[in-house]
Amino acid sequence: MTSMNDMKKLLIMGYVWPEPKSSAAGSRMLELIELFLSQDWQVVFASAAALSEHRADLPSLGVQEKSIALNDSSFNEFIGELKPDAVLFDRFFTEEQFGWRVEQVCPNALRLLDTEDLHSLRNARHQLLKQSQKLAENETARQSVDPVLASVDEIYAKMASDDMAQREIAAIFRCDLSLMISHFEIELLSNYFAVPKQLLHYSPFLHAQVPEQQSLPSFSERQHFISIGNFRHEPNWDAVLYLKHAIWPLIRAQLPHAELHIYGAYPPPKAVQLHNPKQGFCVKGWADDALAVMQQARVCLAPILFGAGIKGKLMDAMRSGTPSVTTNIGAESMHGDFLWGGLIENNAQDIAAAAIKLYCDQALWQTSQQQGTIILKKYFGAIDHSQSLIDRMSTLQANFVAERRQNFIGAMLRHHSLKSTQYMSQWIEAKNRDR
Questions:
Q1: What is the pLDDT of residues 299-352, one digit of tens each?
Q2: pLDDT digits 0-9 by tens, 375-426
């Protein structure tokens, strides 16, 4: 039995407290925590975010929670006493805020970055969408703009001129390993931004959770459409508006008794105001069990206009045996060469037509359901992603000095860019003291 003193220590720097029932990011973080615990790591989770009502009960897992403050040298004392063997930054923002302090106090700790999805990619697509929406003559037309299907060259051009991409990719270089959930993002970083592939590790959701078909509600036992996603995540809110203004009226005209049930954590008043049972547009809000409500629906609608990474709602749809209609952006890096578990379309008319066809055609629905299961088994479940990450961590620890020496750009960025972050943070801390 490993004693507590002998256990390896992992400090997770949380951008927010993990909420596995609110977002895919929360589910993924919990998977990572459980993986490290299974490998006999002592895990400490620290965050400067306010404690949230839906956060996971980390202490019940044996994880120590630590509330920390931004721009405060008390963090240096905390990490100096903890002496972690590895630090996992939750999104690049936390690496920017705390990376220089980790470097200063624990320079030999492994630095891991969980990107969740590539924020700068999502931001670039959002900017391209906004450019198209500006040309619309009124609010309904603006919310009816279809997804902008930019080429990789166009995406790179947008990202390369954007401050967020420079910040995020600098953070990737400063870390020893970045966990990526999308093959598309790995190729983008490698081919266009010259990020060495040894700095990137493909680590999607660790458990495919393939459903047993016989245990799922059948086509005839299901009814209505579902859309789900945390309202604080901008792509989800934009998708709801797109459904409201452009897609649902077309579906409702053909299926007058069908309803669209919209679930998601933290619905703002402007979302609740869209609730209109007479139109079959039902804003349900928080779902205590996303898979349970997903299994009751016949079709999942996810008309993603912009975004990045793996879409948790579409993973949940496949796990629930619920065929989905989404866009190319929604399905990106989620099915490889396999046919999609539903239909993919990229404009409102085609999305609505696909949704109606999938809802009414039992044979197509059953084929799509089976295809979702194939994706879970053969695309996400083809290799053991947990073991793959464990093996990469072992290699990195064994060759730590050599691997870090190869990453000269990272060393250079840690030397220069973290100095500016350090001085800004210390200036803010001094100002706060003087108040």
A1: 999 999 999 999 999 999 999 999 999 999 999 999 999 999 999 999 999 999
A2: 999 999 988 999 999 999 999 999 999 999 999 999 888 876 655 666 566 6
| Residue 343 φ/ψ, nearest 5 degrees | -135, 145
What is the model's pTM? 0.92
| Single-letter amino acid code for the residue at 262 | I
CA distances from 99 to 177, 241, 275, 286 (A): 14, 38, 44, 35
Residue 39's SS3 state is: coil
- pLDDT tens column, 226-268: 999 999 999 999 999 999 999 999 999 999 999 999 999 999 9
CA distance 369 to 371: 5
Lowest mean pLDDT among 126-140, 174-188, 218-232: 126-140
Helix then strand count (H, E) for the chain reads: 19, 13
Is the four-CA dihedral 221, 226, 229, 230 of positive or negative sign? negative
Find how far residue 191's CA is from the centre of its chain: 22
C-alpha 48: how far from its chain's center? 20
Place of tokens 């379309």: 345
DSSP 310-376: --HHHHHHHHTT--EEE-HHHHTTSSTTSPPSEEE--SHHHHHHHHHHHHH-HHHHHHHHHHHHHII
Let me know if 188 is exposed, middle or buried by CB neighbors in 10 A (0-12, 13-18, 19+): buried
State both tokens at 328.
């190319």
Q: Is the Cβ–Cβ distance between 181 and 308 less than 8 Å?
A: no
Distance CA 87, CA 109 (A): 7
E strands along 137-288, which residues?
177-180, 200-202, 225-228, 260-263, 281-285
Task: Reduce the DSSP state of residue 295 to 3 states and report it.
Answer: helix
Alpha helices in 41-180 (DSSP H): 74-82, 92-105, 119-133, 139-142, 152-160, 163-174
Mean pLDDT of 26-32: 93
| 3-state SS, residue 138 | coil
For residue 132, give the amino acid letter: S
What tokens appear for 105 in the block? 């106090």
Strands lying side by side in the sheet with 281-285:
281-285, 260-263, 225-228, 299-302, 324-326, 342-344
Helix, strand and coil in the chain, % to nearest 5: 50, 15, 35
